[in-house]
């Protein structure tokens, strides 16, 4: 397991109390949020552990598919095959992506959304790029709607 994924697993174990019992946060109280390359460890964790929800902000299908957009399958040397893991996420998933993303093409967000078994209504931010989605009013509105009304209350 690479450094990025190993670090996220260690963080999960820390909060879950498996490596340090100081913090015993119940999985139903954890919302995993990943943005851009951060969606890689978010999806990896969510595919392996129970959590309340997952938010994928400008997700990438895989590292190779970002660098080579015509790539249609996952190769063994692709370090970040999120497209192959997202179907294993059992939690509700909100996908957010700007339609004019110049770093990770909008098609990545669409593909990830289509593969999520428990995807909720996505947020496609018309005209937003990779680093300005938070400036659009519908971003905070959608997050609030998802967290406050679409997740099961505990």
Concise summary:
The protein has 154 residues and is an alpha/beta fold. The protein is 37% helix and 12% strand.
Counted by DSSP, the helix tally is 6
Helix content: 25-40%
Radius of gyration: 15 Å
What structural category do the secondary elements indicate? Answer: alpha/beta
3D shape: globular
Walkthrough of the structure:
- The chain is α/β, with parallel strands linked by helices.
- 37% of the residues lie in helices and 12% in strands.
- The chain contains six helices and four strands; from the N terminus they run αβαβααβαβα.
- Helix 1 crosses helix 2.
- The longest helix has 14 residues, at 3-16.
- The N and C termini lie far apart (33 Å).
Reconstruct the topology from this structure.
Elements: H1 3-16, E1 31-35, H2 39-48, E2 53-57, H3 63-67, H4 82-85, E3 93-98, H5 106-115, E4 123-125, H6 137-150
């Amino acid at each position: 397991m690479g450094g990025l994924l190993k670090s996220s697993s260690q963080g999960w174990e820390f909060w879950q109390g498996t490596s340090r019992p100081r913090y015993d946060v119940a999985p139903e109280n954890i919302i995993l949020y990943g943005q851009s390359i951060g969606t890689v460890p978010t999806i990896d964790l969510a595919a392996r552990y129970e959590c309340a929800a997952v938010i994928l902000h400008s997700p990438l299908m895989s590292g190779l598919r970002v660098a080579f957009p015509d790539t249609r399958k996952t190769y063994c040397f692709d370090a970040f095959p999120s497209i192959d893991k997202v179907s294993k996420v059992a939690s509700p998933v909100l996908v957010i992506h700007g339609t004019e993303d110049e770093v990770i093409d909008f098609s990545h967000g669409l593909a990830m959304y289509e593969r999520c078994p428990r995807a909720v209504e996505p947020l496609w931010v018309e005209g937003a790029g990779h680093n300005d989605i938070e400036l659009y009013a519908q971003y905070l509105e959608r997050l609030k709607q998802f967290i406050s009304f679409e997740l099961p209350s505990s």
